[in-house]
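Hi everyone,

Forwarding the result from last night's run.
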Amino acid sequence: MNAIFITILNMSITASVVALAVMLARIPLKKAPKIFSYALWGVVLFRLVCPFSIESGFSFLPTSTIAIPQDIVYSQNPAVHTGIGFVDAPVNAAINNTLSPVVPENIANPIHTVFNIAGYIWLFGFAVLLVYAIIGYIRLKRRVYYATLVRDNIFETDAIKTPFVLGFIRPKIYIPLGIDPAQQDYILKHEQTHIKRRDYLIKPFAFIVFALHWFNPLMWVSYFLMSKDIEMSCDETVLRKEDEDIRGDYSSSLLNLSVKRGSILLTPLAFGESNVKGRVKNVLNFKKPSRVIIIVAVMLVVVLSAGFALNRVGEAVNYLNDRWFGNFDGKEMTLDDVRELAAKGDDLLFADLQEYKGINASSSFDRYIMVYGVEGGYRLVVNHHNTQVKPNSVYLESIWADGGSGIDIRYGNIDEFLQNNPSQEAITEEQAINILTDWWKTLVDWEQGDPLPNLVSLGTSLEPSGEACWLFVNPGVADVGDYWAVAKRSGIVYVGTNKNDGSEDWNVGFFTAVFANRLADE
């Protein structure tokens, strides 16, 4: 439940930003046809239902789409990360001041309890709104059960005071008795336009989506404005298709209906008339737009829709929720990058390392051992549990020194470490064999494997993780792989098996015996 509710919250936060942008965009679009404002609400709906998107530098989003991390319910220092400082600071301060500190030995985590309760309240609220809509729909169907067929899909009845479209598969138009025949034509054209545009499906779908986010008042404002844009754009379509000026007669028909309309509240799953005052004003001010206005409006809608549908660069991998094997296309880590990461100290997050090229060397599904090759013959080894935001350890090591001999960059002196461990460009074949030997001995210790076989260097490079490697053949020991490779930059060991189709399947092995043993002891 927590995971679903946190996902809903993140989508709601992102959609709120987009909704505010759409509301602002409606101002310059005021003189353009309302169909353009209507179209913009599509990107808000997209953000409300889709938790992921394509990354692009073109994104207009100022915030992260994962403002609330999934592991916040387990974190000892819960915090949100929208990417907007003046939002994060007061929210995180409120969280820290409101909730009691988390003691690791405690079973009950305050924020876990809060999210649990909030999740069930959210689900209950959504269920209530859904039941309300369904009951309203059934009651309305019963009300028009004895309506008289006029022609085609048009029905007439004295049980209603305002026309509407009802139905999802074969929608029907219901109109009240006693409507002036001259005005009835305009009303029918309006309702038929709704059907042609599938508004009778779009609006109920939008209601269900907004109901999922019922706790967010901005979403209900968006639903109200979207409904206005739907009706006004439909009015404009009818006016635009007429050869003569019918604005006076059309607005009169709207006013007459508003006077006759009773207190019946249509279900959100039906499609009825609303906002008569605003519609009449829009009808009376209607003018067929110029070609320039249309072109500008189209460009604005396309640009805004694309910009707010795309995620910011650096948010595509959600490795805190899914099994993540590494970032093979990331950028190479430099010592300057290490210093920048170290400067964050205790505020360093596992997410801060996402952009760099690295491999997950852990065989466990509940924690990561990320290894990043660093220029000069170093590696950064990050031990991280997937229920936390911050890593447990961030060790900078020399790739040819014993594992565990490095420093945690958050607390150690990097310059002193580099002075004691001079830089070398890349691992040598001899060092690769030593690493592989240590790895094999560790495997023997842990699994009582066979003695170390004869290693035959093929003298070629392989890149199972996007990193140049020394490649070795392992004859006669098929249960642990036919090929082994040692990364020249980070010293990671890869185990490869030759498939029947001639291709190789590579997995990550331990990178050094000493470091693996140290992790086993923790």
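Residues 102-108, 315-324, 512-522 have pLDDT under 50 and may be disordered.

Cheers,
N.
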